[in-house]
From TrEMBL:
GO MF annotation list: DNA binding
Protein name: Transcriptional regulator, HxlR family
Protein origin, superkingdom: Bacteria
InterPro entries in the cross-refs: HTH_HxlR, WH-like_DNA-bd_sf, WH_DNA-bd_sf
One Pfam family matching this protein: HxlR
Lineage: Bacteria, Bacillati, Actinomycetota, Actinomycetes, Pseudonocardiales
Record-annotated HTH hxlR-type domain positions: 1-84
Organism: Pseudonocardia oroxyli
Keywords (A to Z) from UniProt: DNA-binding, Transcription, Transcription regulation
């Protein structure tokens, strides 16, 4: 979801990202961003102000995920009824 939110043009600050991803904790978002930066999918820019301003954007490698992620999203939407039925039928589901 972070990659999808960052797909918009420009950079986003941490607080802007957090506001656009419902239910994400600060810790989870921070860990996810650290991993995406380490993988080369996201670039991190720090402005040396007080307090520091940190912005994130997709790298060209991260941008290249747009088509595969769109295909996965389309597949999930197409099969949502089947997925929900399987979850309902799974042992321990209720």
């Amino acid at each position: 979801m972070v990659v999808e939110v960052l797909a918009a043009p420009g950079e986003l600050r941490f607080s802007e990202l957090r506001g656009r991803i419902p239910g994400v904790s600060q810790k989870m978002l921070s860990t996810t961003l650290q991993n995406l930066v380490a993988d080369g999918l996201v670039a991190r820019r720090v402005e040396h102000t007080v307090p520091p301003r940190v912005s994130y954007r997709l790298t060209p490698l991260g941008d290249s995920l747009e088509v595969p992620l769109a295909a996965l999203r389309e597949w999930a939407e197409r099969h949502m009824v089947e997925i929900d039925a399987a979850r309902t039928a799974a042992p321990g589901s209720g």
